[in-house]
Amino acid sequence: MNDTPDRTAITPATGRSVYVPGSRERPAFYESLRRVVLVLRHFFFALDVRGLEHIPASGPVILASNHLSFWDIPSVALLPRRLLHFMAKSEYARNPQARWLFTKLEAFFVRRGEGDMEAIRNALAVLKAEQVLIIYPEGHRSETHSLIAAHEGLALIAIKSGAPIIPVATWGSENVGKGGHFAFWRPTIHIRYGPPMRLTATGKRVSKEDLILATNQLMGTIASMLPAQYRGVYAEEATKRETAATPVLSEPTTEAQA
Length: 258
Prior knowledge:
The protein is α/β, with parallel strands linked by helices and 258 residues long. 29% of the residues lie in helices and 16% in strands. The protein has a single domain (8-90, 99-242), classed as Glycerol-3-phosphate (1)-acyltransferase (3-Layer(aba) Sandwich). The protein contains 7 helices and 9 strands, in the order ββαββαβαβαβαββαα.
């Protein structure tokens, strides 16, 4: 496994290590694995996907999704046409096989719950390279299958980069393989990609209040895209953003369009 690409470099001005994104095209390994999962997923789950047209064809963009299950990771990445850079938890870096896999998939590692500034610099490097970053703001899967309090790192990345955010709401993944059933019962994973939004600071410096406000704004938007039982701690924020008019949803996206 010595063919793993080295995606880090030392910044001369600071002496710090920073992630260096590869090509904007999906690498052969990434694309091959995506196609394999597209086939295999027929044994595990059905897909109901809407809103892919909101993801810009070029330029920096952040996808921000809620997180219910492992299956959120492959399902959210299956149909977008662009390469998605994931933040993988640092525990995976300690396992040689896992480290090899995530590195081949153009992911980088983050130390959760530690205010990992290196991970934030790496995320900004992805966006500076005009590529796509996907983040789960809650930091880990929700054991209650509803939204839990999000970390403020995403808001900091979004404000500093100025990149648009695509809010992503997904549900149903928590039922995949439930009770050990796979081929004989295929639950549907629903995914909604929302219109782009931008998070901004109120002044020249990003304050703690800015981060809290921006995080609530984002999570409230994601919550408003979810069925009521999944909204969790952001149910009130979702209610603030709902309107009397029913939003017009796009037609479901087929796998042939990916």
